[in-house]
Amino acid sequence: MPSRLFSHLKTPRSSCSSLRHAVVVWLVLVCAVCTQAAASDLEVELRGVIGGAGVLPGDQRRVEAIVTNAGAEQLGRITITVEAMGGDVGSPQGDGIRWRSRGDAWEGRVRRLDAGASLQVPLDVNFNPVGLSASDEMVSGRLTVSAETRDGAARAEASDSWTMRNCGGRYHAALQTISEDGLSVLKEAVAGAQTAWRRLNGNWVFRPGRVRGDELFAHVIKQATRIVRARGVDRRLRQALKERTMGRLTTDLRLYTRQRETPAICTGSQQYMDFFESQFGTFADRIKTMTALYEQAGQMADWKLLAAGNALSDISQSGTLDARGTERAEALGGVLAQARDLWRNVLDADGTRKLLLDNVLALREFASTLRGLNIKRGDALNEARDTLTLALSAVEAFAYVQGVHANHQSIATGFYGTVSSIRTAHDETCLCTP
Whole-prediction pTM value? Predict the structure, then answer.
């Protein structure tokens, strides 16, 4: 009976299907509206923003993130993420937020945020282009702060940006090149200055005699004798290199050029170079002394060779020599000609140790030739021989002095060249003003 009473209320099968479809569509729309409404409940705002302006690497700016629940209901389990590119953020603060580091980002957890409530998150942004390519002169930085509920129903994000010159990265790359090229020259020069000439025995080939009234000769020979006894090494230089100040100088320069890249790498560079040059001061004085000795030794060798030529010419033209004397005078002339050639070779050696050493050892042949002439005291050729011997001593002294002078110049070139390269690199790359 009931079925009959309500039979007129039955809906056709097709109508039921349409109704169910309509209900499903309505539910989807309702859910979508709910989701959209929930997504708009969470807001993130940044205050004190840079807004794309230029900044200086190493500087810091305080930015404040405001996370707000703009909805009518409490939100729970919110995650706040802070990320920076071209910079880094110090430990974030904020009441009721538990922060932890996640690689290059910070992640904060909030248990709940009441409707209409806000959280203040102070952020100290450090502008830092470290890790970027040195070829990039201008780089961009970006700060992103996002907030999201655990279920993903509500999410919001805000960002800020800035630009800066990659001066630190370019300067760091320049220092690496200086470390590999310039410092290797200094290192080799320091090592060479402390190494003795192995083929020398610490004695003169032509031991110089005393010359009364010739203060220049006495001074040069005295200084050269110290070098001879040390087998081609300046003992004062070697001692200076062993002292802490000088001994640490190349190490400190190497450490400076190999330092890691930091935002403040351009800071204090010129002051560092001033300090290094002041530490080099005592050695610079030694270089000046050796340069003066080098010039004096060269001048003395010129004069002594000229004097030897004049003395030999005078006795040869005096008409007092017999046939034996004339023959020995010609032999002395041959030695003098070879001495002049040797002198030119020493000058051409330009401080090259092997060439200087070969020339010094060649003097032994001259000594053997002079001994073979058997010229004795009282002989008419005695004065010419002694003058020639002094000339050969002068050439030998100059060879020793030139070798040490070359060591000094190599160290000075390596040091001042490195410092100059660092100053130039700083001037060219550390123009950090945006």
Answer: 0.68
Regions of the chain with pLDDT less than 70: 1-40, 129-136, 243-247, 434
Question: Looking at the domain 42-165, which fold is it?
Answer: Immunoglobulin-like (2.60.40)
- Pairing type for strands 42-47 and 60-69 reads antiparallel
Four-CA torsion 358, 359, 364, 365, nearest 10 degrees? 100
Interior angle at CA 121, CA 117 and CA 123, nearest 5:
165
C-alpha distances (whole Å) from 178 to each of 271, 347, 379 are 18, 32, 63
Q: What is the pLDDT of residues 225-268, one digit of tens each?
A: 999 999 888 888 777 777 656 668 888 898 999 998 887 788 88
Q: Which of 397, 386, 331 is nearest to 363 (CA)?
A: 397
| Token duo for residue 384 | 């010419």
